[in-house]
Amino acid sequence: MASSKDLTRLLTGLSLVANEFVKRSSPPDFQTLFKNALLSATDLSGITKGNLRQFSNPPPPSSSHHATASDSVVFFTDHASSQSHSAAAAATTTTNVDDVDHLSSEANRRQSPDANVGDVAVQITEDLRSAKTADEAATAAEVAPALPVVRKRRPRERKVPATPFSRALGFAGLGAGLAWGTLQESAKRLAFGTPNLQGNQSAFSPFLSESNAERLALALCRMRGAALKIGQMLSIQDESLVPAPILAALEIVRQGADVMPKSQLNQVLNAELGPDWSSKLISFDYEPIAAASIGQVHQAVMKDGVRVAMKIQYPGVADSIDSDIENVKLLLNYTNLIPKGLYLDRAIKVAKEELSRECDYKLEAANQKRFRDLLAGTDGFYVPLVVDAISSKRVLTTELVNGIPIDKVALLDQETRNYIGGKLLELTLKELFVFQFMQTDPNWGNFLFDEVTKTINLIDFGAARDYPKRFVDDYLRMVLACANGDSDGVIEMSMRLGFITGEESDVMLDAHVQAGFIVGLPFSKPGEYDFRSTNITQSISHLGATMLKHRLTPPPDEAYSLHRKLSGAFLACIKIGAVVPCRKLLLEIYKHHKFGDENEILSSGSVSA
Ligand SMILES: Nc1ncnc2c1ncn2[C@@H]1O[C@H](COP(=O)(O)OP(=O)(O)OP(=O)(O)O)[C@@H](O)[C@H]1O
């Protein structure tokens, strides 16, 4: 029902604008302010405005460069400079000659000229929709729950709000828009009654209405940066736990952000790579293959003919991580949706650190090279090469790879899905327990399955981190205790790792141990674990509420990214309906693991296969 609390929310949203005024020593001129206010006002009425992408070709950057008249691809055809620039690129790049040769041959092997990732994914979805034979229909029915009906959004071209002020204003507009949506929904419920959705969904607050969820999603797509990243993290959730309208809105967020206009894109490229950046390329496609949370990705062809993906960071997002997250926190606070036991401040601190690392593409390049080395001898995985000569702190150029994103492999045959599920779990266990270095962003788009080579192409290493040896040793002991149903072992290791203090109530300890056993279930029995018939996520969510209520300490810092990744790996197996010999994979790791402190063995628990 419309209440004074809703009005307070509306005012809190608007007060963000006022706050920003007070904080700023030099307020913007009134014309800009008026324009921004208008933009926010437009957003209040649905936040759905924005120009659809229309790529008109600009005048060529110099006389030696030519734009095609037909589409978004611009060709740079200066032959003389092509040779010298190609040589310069080869000289400055840190990849060695073997790597460059390898890059060319790998690229030829992997890049089928006409197909791109999106096409394949769309094709699969189309196949599902148009299944005609009984077999196809049966397969479609089998995978149907794994593919929610998604409303496709046409990408909008909108400038990234790049200054702290324009970003704060965007959040203020969103805050006010959400409050307005809440008022509308409350009024609707007053007149027509609370909608009777399935399960307990009718109990959701009017804040979580369908229109508010969509409003939030579209605003995040326009803002991009840290806020969108958080939305995308939330979007990787089990369908059975999240109400359908919210899930649909989060899917919008997951599909990608709005697109930077060409002028803004060129500004970033010139500033990062110098005005002659195009001299290293044969062509550059101004239509992005993806608009992600922190940057958008474009295809280009290098002078040696190799196709590459250039990830170009949105301006201003790196400098506004702190303020973006504070604004998200403000929004969350006045929704009253955050339970106390979430220790939001701690989670926010960790998120800020992770996001600032992700904005440093030099760090990402280093992570990617490290993973490439670590996985060099492992069958079934491929990490694309980094092209240092066309990379900087805000631009990352890597070899272009093909593949179907993991969430879209549901229509492939069972054997292939089992293979992919097994490979994903093998990789996850290896990263943590063998490499002690993990890519912690479980976004399904980061794993591209190439059907021809049966290889999972891995991309996006911005969120990679090391785990200390002692943490890894104890975590492995804890996972084994969970798998073996050993409650003393779970409690002992959880205390050592900092998940509990030991002073918790019996209710909390019991919930903690039960949650551990549920997560350990796939590893508990010899043979194959069938992720198609699991209810891990539902069981955990019941215990989660108890744990949030009775928790005495936030989880250790390492746990945030780690648990995001582990649950991402499980959810991927559930989503694709894989059947995986989980215990065998775990015991294989355990058998070869060298514990740092050999004397300290797990108090109980067997390692029988
Ligand atoms: N080397 C590549 N080959 C093919 N496609 C790529 C490559 N690099 C990036 N992409 C495409 O661009 C998308 C976004 O790239 P990436 O995940 O690296 O960006 P990000 O900003 O870290 O994204 P996110 O917000 O998902 O974390 C990928 O999902 C993929 O579709």
TrEMBL record:
Example GO BP: ubiquinone biosynthetic process
Keyword set includes ATP-binding: yes
Residue span, ABC1 atypical kinase-like domain: 253-494
InterPro entries found in the cross-reference section: ABC1_dom, ADCK3_dom, Atypical_kinase_ADCK, Kinase-like_dom_sf
GO molecular function term, any single one: ATP binding
Keywords carried by this UniProt record: ATP-binding, Nucleotide-binding, Transferase
Annotated PANTHER family: COENZYME Q8, PTHR43851
Protein family membership: Belongs to the protein kinase superfamily. ADCK protein kinase family.
Protein name in UniProt: ABC1 atypical kinase-like domain-containing protein
Gene source species: Clitoria ternatea
Species classification: Eukaryota, Viridiplantae, Streptophyta, Embryophyta, Tracheophyta
